[in-house]
Input
Amino acid sequence: MSSRRPKGAKSAFSAFGLHKNLLRAISEAGFKEPRPIQAKTIPQALNGRDILGLAQTGTGKTAAFALPIIEYFIASKGQNPRALILAPTRELALQTHAEIEVLAKYTNIRSTTVFGGVSASAQMRALKARPDIVVACPGRLLDLASSGHIHLDGVEVLVLDEADHMLDMGFLPDIKRILSRLPESRQNLLFSATMPREIRSLTDRMLHKPHVVELAHAMPLETIEHALYPVEQKQKAALLRHLMREENFTSAIVFLRTKHRARKLARDLERAGHSAIALQGNMSQPQRQRAMQGFRDGRYDVLVATDIAARGIDVPKVSHVINFDIPNTPDAYTHRIGRTGRAEESGKDCTFVTHEDFPAIKVIERKLKMEIPRIKIRDFKRDSDDGGDTFRRQGRPQKKFSKKPGAGKRRGRSGGYSPRPEAQGRGKQTRESTQSARPAPSGPGFGAGLKGKAPRRQSSTKSGQGGGAGSPGRRKGGGGQGRRRSGR
Output
C-alpha cells in the first residue's frame, strides 16, 4: 500500500510539519505528493484523532498511519511498545514492518514483527529490546502476551490494518482479548479498502468521535481494466496460458479458492516451462517468504495463490490479476484486483467464469455499480505444431448478453456458451461457485470490550455510509498530539 513517486522534487509532505529526519526518509523513498488518503488523514492523526480510513487498495494507507506514529514517537517518550499494528496475514505484517523501517531509517524508532508459522524465540529476543512499534498477527501476539514476553499496557496507538477482515468472525474473539489488555485511553486508527455495513456498526463502538475518510473505497481503481471470460472449467488452464502469451503480459497473480488446486496449477505451469510459484496457507513461513520474495525480484512471473495474497500485498508492476476461480464476495473481488494497477500504474483484471458463476458475478457488478465487459471467445483449438492452445476473440468485448428467451447455454462454433440472464439461477451449482462470505458478527459481546474509554478532546464528526456485501447464491441472491496524549 505504498505510494512511490519519482525522486527529485521537494517533498510536499513538509506541509504536515514532519521532523526533518522523517522528511529525509520520505524523499529517499521516492514519495513526492501525498496521496488523497494521506492528505486527509495524517493531519487529523497528528492531532490525536481516531481515524476510520476507507480507500481503494494501492492508495498509500500504510504511510497514512505510519507517518503520524513515527512523528509522534520522535518527539516524546513512553513505555514500549507504544504502538500495536494488527494485520490479518504474515505477508502483510512483514510488508508493513518493511515500510515502517524505510520511513524510520533516520530516527531512533524501531519496529518488529510477531506472527506464527516460525519459531517464537527470535521474536522473544526482539521484544526484549523493547521496540517502539510491534506489527503482529493476533494469534502469536496473544501467545506471547500470555507467557509474559510482551506487555501491552503502554500501547498508545492501535492500528487495525484491513480492519474489516480483522473484525470478522474468524478474528473477532482474538481482537476482543487483545483489546482487554490495552489501555482504555488510546488512539485507534482503522484502515481498509472495504467496510460492510455489519462490520461498520462494530467499528462505531470501537472508535471515539472518529475522523472518517471515505474515498470511493468500494470502487476499483480507474487504472485497472476489467474483463470477464466465459469459459468451460476444463478450458481455464489453456486460457490462462493464452493470456500469458499476450504482448502486455509481464507478471500475474492467479487466484484460486483451494490450496490443493493452487499447488497443482503452479506445478503444471512450471512443467509447461513458465516460471510460476504457489503461495498458500499450508506452506511454512520460510517457504512463503521465499515465494513472495522470488515474485518481487522477478524470478517468478506468476504467483498462484489463494486469498492469502489478496490483502495488502504490494508488488510493483503486476500487469495482470487473474481470477481463475471467482471470489466468494464482492469485497474479495475488490481486494484481489487491487494487487494490480497500484500507485497509478495500469493493470488488467481477468476473471474466468463458468455458467454457474454468473449469479455471483451479478452480485459483484451490483456492488461495484459497474458492468464488467465480457470477452467472447470464438474459437478454441489445439495447435498441432507446438502442442499449445490458441484462443481467438470475436470482435470487441461484449458488454451484454442476449436477452432473448431461452435457458441454459447457447452453443456456437466454439462449443462455448453465452449465458443468458434468465438462466442464471438454474441448474446445479458446484460447491466452489456457491461459497459465501461468513456471517458478520453480532450481539452485545463485542461492545463489552470497548466501553469505558477516557473522554476525548472535542472534535467534529463526519459520518459515512459503508457498503453491504451480498453473497453469491441462488437466483434471487442480493446483493495537539502532545496535549492529547500527555494525560495517558
